[in-house]
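Justification of computing resources. Each target in the renewal requires a structure prediction run like the one illustrated here; the chain below, 512 residues long, is used simply to show the kind of job we budget for.
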Amino acid sequence: MDEGTELSLTIAHIVRRLKGSHLHSQIERQAKECLHQPEIKLESLREDVRSFLKTSGWEKKLQNAVYRELHVQLPPSHPAAPPEHLKEPLAYMRKAQANWEKRVLKSLNSMSTELGVPLARMRPAVEQKELTNKWNEMGTDEPDLSRFRPVYAPKDFLEVLISLRNPNHDSSEDLSTRSHWGLIQVPLNVRDIPQLRQTYSELNLTMGQLGIDDHAHIHPVVADQDSAAAQQYSRQGCPTGLRADLWALILNSTNHPPDVMHYEQLKAGVIQHDLLVDNLIYKDVKLTASNDDYYFVFEDFLYQVLLCFSRDTAVLEHFKYNSATPPKSYIQGKVGDEECAVVYPPNGVIPFHGFSMYVAPLCFLYNEPSKLYSVFREMYVRYFFRLHSISSSPSGIVYLCLQFEWLLQTHLPQLFYHLRQIGAQPLRIAFKWMVRAFSGYLSTDQLLLLWDRILGYDSLEIVAVLAAAVFAFRAENLMEVMSLASAEAVLADLSTLKVMPLIQIFLFATAI
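Resulting structure tokens:
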């Protein structure tokens, strides 16, 4: 497709998406109301209305909404391309993702059958009243969760990624032997250090970074209410006092009355219906965030946000550009009848071990549940879903694993070879960090500095760079270990690490 056609398709798609939105009806109402103002003249109606929308801030809101759509929509492609190609162009990736989904759903259905717990049920009135009363203190509840187990853990997912192969690729054709060193054996083009330096030029050692330099310039970007400017600004870190507003602005996440009402409707859905996945959410929070020195105080918030999230059908929108497909279950007694298949859970996302850690750091920024919820949902549909689905996306977990292994092999070949020889493949250690975007491993202040850059560069690639930088930082100690357990012990505690100096030194002080 030529650029003109591509641009026309993109514009048409965005116009279609925004036409049904709350913002569209608000702008329409404002435009109608301004017609009664004396400065609006009939002979220059179009210009006057446009000028009014600009000075009253509505044009900026529209720009931010368009900017948001550009970040979440599918890349433009040939109009004749089948939908599955748009979600994921590589057939073997699509097949692997479909097989993984079947496995996860089978595990969930088996649990339901074994425990005699239905996938969904209406709560009795007494239970509804009880839950309503303790909504803000669900952490005090101690349900018996001993029979429930996570549907899968990151290490199970890693085994699937390790077994990925492109049937059309002959690895013997590779000019180097590097493809046989790592665990990920798929041919994706990852970036080398010179390319990364170019991409992350704002992280250069000569550039001021918030979190390192206290005097880094604070731009009046929040006052401007410009998503694109806020995104550019956060590449050098966000000031602690502005971070919550900047992130919400970058994500175009609002907390207007319709957003609050949507959250309240989801809450009502939680109170009315009990889902099997609710137990998985409870169990996950108990196993992870509740045992974390930074996050245990947010236990109630985590239940509220995650239980509402599981019922939010608006999340299904992201499956248009996600390689995954929402899992479906059948109404009791109607197995196999497609007309009786329903998406389960309603948001199409089955939580796994560690899922609640995607929300936990955001609790430091937002203390209003509806606001916390809308920011988390936007972070999930933009970034986090890519960490647990199989795709060839440059922000996808397969790419991140390959990027991590390649950086380590290229720049620390002796270390990589040593760890491989003693059965301590680096990816086996780093995978758990990457699949959670380091949440629960770094101290919160450092994690938020890392997530500033995920938002600033609109990519998860920096996660793989940091993982390689951690190994480089501990290389001396790792060269002395003689087992996987010893290597894991060296890297067990990342809470004292300073993220930005690590990334900067690794990218900009490495000799090429």
